[in-house]
Amino acid sequence: MTTDAWAVAQELAQGETQAGFRPVRKRTANELRAHGIISGDDVLDPEWQRLLSVLGRAPVVQRILASHRDVTLHTDVVVLPDIALAVTQRRTSTHDPAGPRAVTGVELAVEVVLFGHDEIWRVVRRVIPDIPALRADADPSVPEEPISVSDEDQARVAAITKMRHGARPSSREAIDLMRDPDPRLRDLLDAEAEVSVLGLARRPGRSHVDVQQWSVGRQGLYLSRTQESDDTALLMEVGPGHLGAEVERGLDRLIAFARGTAAA
Prior knowledge:
This protein is of the alpha+beta class. The chain has 2 domains: 3-53, no CATH class; 56-259, no CATH class. The chain is built from 9 helices and 10 strands. The protein has helices at 3-14, 26-34, 46-53, 120-125, 132-135, 154-162, 171-176, 183-189, 242-259, and strands at 60-68, 71-79, 84-94, 102-106, 111-115, 145-146, 193-203, 206-216, 221-226, 233-238. Strands 1, 2, 3, 4, 5, 6, 7, 8, 9 and 10 form a 10-stranded antiparallel β-sheet that branches. The longest helix has 18 residues, at 242-259. The protein is globular and about 70 Å long.
């Protein structure tokens, strides 16, 4: 649906449009009716009212950024106790291996999907670049092989793994400063595709954040995992099926934390 229709649906759920925030245009109203979000008399469907009214305060949210060449699919997943909702938007961006991506355009349409918690990989898989190593069936048995980094180089590694999310230091310069960098670090840097998964779980008085990124290099598939406790990064080489398994495990961890059945 158009981004305007999606914005109006959320305004309706918060009572902003009904209170005169802005009138609903006829074309937008027709679009919302076609999607079953409002009825013929412009009343928000009760189930959509329930879902949209809690989007901003859901206990579990995930953001998936799937980038290949100059296209990034931006997906926000909102997880409620009985259902989940994914909203995906296509963006174009510059792809400079020496620095973070810069958004150059945003499509004025979103895809909205409702699904059960156990369908998370089926939904996320659809927005992942069509590369076998990334789209492989979820396989919990795929091992994680650590890429060793000295303690003194850990800060540089953190800068490298964060660069796609806006850090400014030149990642190539960071590698050049290392005494004997693992060649896989350069392969990770020259990745042709990347998938970042950022998860947030909340419960009264506490929150937990997961940040992971998979990169497809010429020689392998790599995972960088940010440690929330000390802001360091773990780098690992993984295989096909790891992304799907970790998307499923990650959601389970976030839900367990939000319910109070798991520690951070």
